Amino acid sequence: MTYAQVVHLLEGYAKQLGMSFWHGRRSESGINYDEPFPQLHLFLMSDVVGATVIRRSIGLGFFGKDEEAGTSDQMLTIQDDMDQLSQQFISMLEGTADVQIVGDVSRMTTVRRGAHVGTGYYVDFTLNSIRTIC
């Protein structure tokens, strides 16, 4: 799969879960309250091209809308929602014939601050896909 094909695959799964999807410059700019929540941010990925497989390092941010003045209990609720969404997303990927998650999936709770606040999970994993251009 090409880079764009992987991006579109991830975007399709995000939309199936009711998430808005961000990648590239939009994802690097921060949380945008003008876009629907929850938000899935795909961060720039590196890859290794083998003879038949492309191995990509995927980094995703699952963010729910938070407030700077929010309570710890509100934050915990958002984190729990993003925990569940991230697990559903990974399950969808694991059921895809065109790609394979290699090894374990790492997850970490996170808060992303900028002009606005997003709370959720940062998820990273290695994804293998078949090399289509030889």
* Coarse shape: elongated
Radius of gyration: 15 Å
Sheet having the most strands: 5 strands, mixed
What is the CATH class designation?
A: Alpha Beta
Oligomeric state, counting identical vs distinct chains: single chain
- The overall number of domains is 1
DSSP helical segment count: 3
Distance between the termini: 11 Å
Q: H/E order of the elements?
A: HEHEEHEE
Low-confidence blocks of residues: none
Q: Do you know the CATH architecture?
A: 2-Layer Sandwich
Helix content: 25-40%
Total count of strands: 5
Structural class: alpha+beta
Strand content: 35-45%
CATH fold-level assignment = Alpha-Beta Plaits
Query: pLDDT average, as an integer?
Result: 90
Strand line-up of the largest beta sheet: 1-2-3-5-4
